[in-house]
Inverse folding.
């Protein structure tokens, strides 16, 4: 064999990068209609301690015979007893996941991708703008913030859902607020019982005073929402390198090998899913890219 | 509609908290005091109903006011909430619309400023400098409402299965 | 056997009939020898055991959407440019089993990865553009942070014998892409076919060991000169060119709304032919293959294409819903983003995508049109 010298990595998961690890489902927590959190634990005890992820990363979850789906990790990265994935049931794989119960075994490959650079943002005001199923990849941030609240200035979560019933993690809002996280929860349409806000995530920036010198924005949700969040952030003089965006594309391998998730020069699974807007700027508004 | 408020000082203090009014000339500001009053609302209290005659433009000072529409079979659907410094009932001073196109209800204990719509409209007609400031502000309100409505119309959080039928 | 000994980098000659012994020597090292043969009116790579298996005297006529294999009566064995098949499938087969999942019961299952079992293979008559394509794919599948184990196991058990090009085809543009007509490194052995002898270059220890036992002769000056003249001829007779290749990465990514994309979208059929014949296209999908009871599931890797409608499907939506966006993805990836991803162009100038496009879309014409519209 000729002409190259690969440096083999020692990491187990990369020796056989497509092989799923078995994890037992510990419990299933319904969050909203067609959205549940699956708490799981690796069957291999060694893997439980060696497995580490960073907030914003994702795993490939799989079910034999159904295939794999990229699902972001929604749990506390310091919790080594269990890993949580909040899944919306939309496709073949996620619908199969919806039929799993505690005790069933699911396949996990990962973690993959880039993370929210929270450790670089000590002392900053963190503005989190999430919509719909865009909140789960940001929830690990909230665990981190709660564990080290004094490392950050203001921490504001703007979260929007379709209706009050669609709001996720409602049980936790009180704990978040008690930890000093400002919550702005809004829905697209309310019913007669809903006394909270009705409106859309980007427009909630009108309620905030932001100091552009010390503010960072983390956002995840439908791309159209992200577009207007960026618009409002830029209008408040937040610079593109201080706006962090988690992108969604068709991901099949998680390794930057299969090609599907490309966006311009990037593999979203490897170079993302978390990008700065500075990175995305040339490509973000190009139609059908 | 405004009852005559005996104590004008409270009203003046309240109006001075509204950023929009800071750019008014003193005589314009005094003009608005003459056609304004304060109104306190309890949780659940209606500010107006769909179909009512348009008589007031409201500025929310405290609390939260929901814009809602009655939909047969679905009850009242809340489609927008106004927070402090937001405007409710903007169509009352447009020349054409004559009745409320949606209802408004306090969902938290609230305080609003009520500006007599007809008098405000007349004042704007008589003094276009005042009219410019008022209608420029209204244009901003309408623009942000339209953006909100457009994003809601996209139904961006809808389940894909609903979209595909 | 001649005096002296061979060193890596040495250039010697071998009488043409001795090539049969060369193949045997390679086979004796445990390699299966694959090379160009005539099959289905094209050149395809099959097992070869001797010179008689090679397409002597054949020439391929190639143009946009046109390919004919013709007998032109010359005496050369390696003088026909490739057909639709590339060597890509050797390392990255169109369908590979990755692993098997065994369901134990309703709740649990186990996974077993597939052990690579490809026999050592010698690729005979690899064109310089094809060797360049293999090297491009090495960068994709064998990264510093991650190597694909199936690709690696096949790649490291491969012997490569290059056949340099003296008569390029009608859709060739390796000179523009800097990949030909001659290979300089990355092979075990290379040959340049002259009228009477093969000029052999030693590229590796494996190549040296195999050639050492054969009756090679030091290369005569006139043989070396003949090869040089041949390369000069080939350089002058490229079927296609892209004059400003180095401008492509920046120019294409800075001009994603170029109107040329609307134009090519009217001609492109989204048939995926170009990606299937391309020796560097690496996109793949994972498929589940169940047995009837569902107790055993093979997870397989299959070639995919950025022209397939499902390629970019994400729950309920498709981020590239039309041919314009898919063609743009293909050509910008190939000629521009590849450079940022892997440090090289994704195009080696082999011309297959031009020849095998049923609509005759020409990547060099499209690239030149895109460049000409870009403000310099």
């Amino acid at each position: 064999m000729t002409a190259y010298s690969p440096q083999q990595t020692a990491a187990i998961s990369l020796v056989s990068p497509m092989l799923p690890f078995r994890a037992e489902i510990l419990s299933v927590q319904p969050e909203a209609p067609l959205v549940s959190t699956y708490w799981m634990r690796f069957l291999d005890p060694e893997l439980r301690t060696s497995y580490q992820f960073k907030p914003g990363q994702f795993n490939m979850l799989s079910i034999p015979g159904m295939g794999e789906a990229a699902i972001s990790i929604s749990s506390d990265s310091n919790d080594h007893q269990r890993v949580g994935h909040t899944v919306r049931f939309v496709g073949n794989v996620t619908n199969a996941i919806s039929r799993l119960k505690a005790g069933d075994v699911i396949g996990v490959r990962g973690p993959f991708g880039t993370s929210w650079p929270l450790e670089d943002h000590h002392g900053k005001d963190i503005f989190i703008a999430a919509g719909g199923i865009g909140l789960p990849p940001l929830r690990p941030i909230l665990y981190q913030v709660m564990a080290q609240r004094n490392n950050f200035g203001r921490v504001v979560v703007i979260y929007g859902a379709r209706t009050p019933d669609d709001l996720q993690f409602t049980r936790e809002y009180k704990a978040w607020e008690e930890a000093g996280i400002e919550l702005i929860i809004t829905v697209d349409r309310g019913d007669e019982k809903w006394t909270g806000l009705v409106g859309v995530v980007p427009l909630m920036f009108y309620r905030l005073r932001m100091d552009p010198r010390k503010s960072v924005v983390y956002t995840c949700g439908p791309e159209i929402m992200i577009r207007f969040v960026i618009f409002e952030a830029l209008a408040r003089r937040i610079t593109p390198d201080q706006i962090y965006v988690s992108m969604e594309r068709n991901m099949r391998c998680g390794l930057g090998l299969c090609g599907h998730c490309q966006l311009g020069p990037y593999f979203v699974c490897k170079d993302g899913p978390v990008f700065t807007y500075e990175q995305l700027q040339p490509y973000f508004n190009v139609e059908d890219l | 509609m405004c009852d005559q408020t005996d104590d004008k000082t409270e009203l003046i203090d309240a109006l001075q908290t509204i950023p929009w009014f800071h750019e008014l000339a003193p005589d314009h500001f005094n003009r608005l005091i003459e056609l304004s009053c304060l109104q306190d609302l309890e949780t659940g209290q209606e500010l107006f109903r769909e179909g009512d005659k348009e008589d007031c433009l409201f500025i929310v000072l405290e609390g939260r006011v929901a814009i809602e529409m009655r939909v047969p079979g679905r009850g009242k659907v809340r489609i927008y909430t106004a927070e402090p410094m937001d405007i409710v009932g903007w169509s009352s001073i447009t020349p054409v619309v004559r009745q409320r196109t949606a209802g408004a209800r306090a969902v938290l204990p609230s305080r609003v400023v009520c500006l007599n719509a007809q008098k405000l409209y007349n004042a704007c007609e008589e003094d276009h400098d005042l009219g410019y400031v008022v209608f420029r502000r209204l244009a901003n309100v309408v623009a942000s409402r339209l953006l909100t409505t457009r994003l809601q119309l996209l139904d961006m959080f809808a389940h894909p299965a609903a979209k595909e039928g | 056997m001649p005096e002296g000994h061979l060193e890596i980098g040495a250039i010697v000659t071998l009488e043409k009939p001795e090539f049969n012994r060369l193949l045997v020597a390679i086979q004796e090292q445990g390699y299966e020898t694959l090379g160009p043969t005539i099959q289905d009116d094209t050149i395809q790579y099959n097992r070869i055991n001797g010179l008689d298996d090679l397409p002597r005297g054949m020439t391929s006529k190639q143009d946009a959407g046109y390919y004919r294999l013709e007998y032109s009566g010359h005496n050369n064995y390696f003088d026909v440019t490739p057909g639709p098949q590339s060597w890509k499938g050797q390392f990255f087969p169109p369908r590979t089993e990755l692993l098997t999942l065994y369901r134990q019961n309703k709740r649990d299952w186990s996974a077993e990865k597939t052990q690579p079992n490809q026999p050592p293979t010698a690729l005979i008559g690899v064109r310089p553009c094809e060797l360049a394509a293999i090297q491009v794919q090495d960068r994709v599948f064998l990264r510093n942070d991650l190597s694909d184990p199936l690709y690696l196991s096949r790649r490291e058990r491969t012997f490569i014998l290059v056949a340099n090009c003296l008569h390029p085809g009608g859709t060739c543009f390796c000179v523009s892409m800097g990949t030909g007509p001659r290979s300089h490194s990355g092979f075990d052995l290379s040959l340049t076919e002259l009228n009477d002898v093969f000029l052999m270059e030693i590229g590796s220890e494996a190549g040296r060991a195999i050639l050492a036992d054969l009756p090679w002769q030091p290369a005569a000056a006139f043989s070396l000169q003949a090869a040089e003249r041949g390369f000069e001829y080939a350089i002058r007779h490229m079927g296609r060119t892209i004059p400003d290749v180095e401008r492509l990465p920046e120019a294409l990514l800075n001009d994603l709304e170029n109107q040329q994309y609307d134009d090519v979208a009217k001609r492109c059929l989204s048939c995926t032919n170009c990606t299937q014949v391309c020796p560097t296209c690496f996109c793949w999908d994972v498929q589940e293959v169940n047995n009837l009871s569902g107790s055993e599931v093979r997870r397989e890797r299959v070639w995919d294409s950025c022209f397939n409608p499902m390629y970019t499907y994400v729950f309920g939506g498709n981020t590239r819903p039309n041919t314009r966006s898919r063609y743009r993805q293909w050509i910008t990836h190939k000629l521009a983003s590849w450079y940022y991803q892997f440090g090289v162009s994704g195009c080696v100038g082999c011309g297959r995508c031009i020849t095998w496009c049923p609509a005759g879309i020409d990547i060099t014409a499209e690239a030149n049109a895109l460049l000409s519209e870009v403000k310099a």
Chain B has one domain: 8-151. The CA atoms of residues 87 and 141 of chain B lie 7 Å apart.
